[in-house]
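Predict the 3D structure for this chain.
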Amino acid sequence: MRRFSSLLIALAFTACNATPSPVTTPAPPMNPAPTAATPASPSAASAIPASLHWFRDSAERRALSLQTYAAASARLESEVGSLARGSWAVILDADETVIDNSQYQRELWLAGKSGFDEALWSDWVSRAAAPPLAGASEFLDLVHRLGGKIAIVTNRSQPSCDATRQNFTKQDLPYDVMLCKDKDGDKNPRFNAVAQGGTPLGPVKIILWVGDNIRDFPGLDQAARLDAGRLGDFGTRFFLLPNPMYGSWESNPAE
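Done. Predicted structure below.
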């Protein structure tokens, strides 16, 4: 019995002082499969400017475009019932109002450019490949169906006007006159020309304007942001589309 007790004590002492065997775990694979939580590499979308990503890829931008054109359509139908066919018109900007140039903005970014590039822009315009924004084609069709005229007043240069007309034609976007930039880009003289008969349309009543820049609307500029009273025609005569990619707002001081 005494010999058995001594054996137990010896075994216990050995167990307490033994070096434990290492626990082996399988080595991780050299290239673990990506998961939703740990992507293999950053997505291209996360690398492009947020404003461009939003404009090209968001449901919100498409919804706002549809909403703006739906509101403009409703206003138009309520205003022109008693007007003679051909006696009235609407004025729209082209870029980021009727047609979408975000592909040019993407190519600009891919080329490492931080601002406007004349060569890339000329190439883009010459392709006449800008698609229509959501709701634009249906709105233009409605204007003609109701008996109105369509004036496109754009600050694209005169040399690019023919390619812009081709772009509209390729996309089945109706219009009656297109007025490109003349001197300083001020659209007000061209607005007046449309209304007063200085175009092939003859004198017409302007029912509403659609644009993406505050300067697409008569008498307005960025100073209007400081005076809400100057913005009272939005939703009735003026209809605005969102454009966070570029615009006259870029020169405003950041606060």
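The chain has a mean pLDDT of 87.
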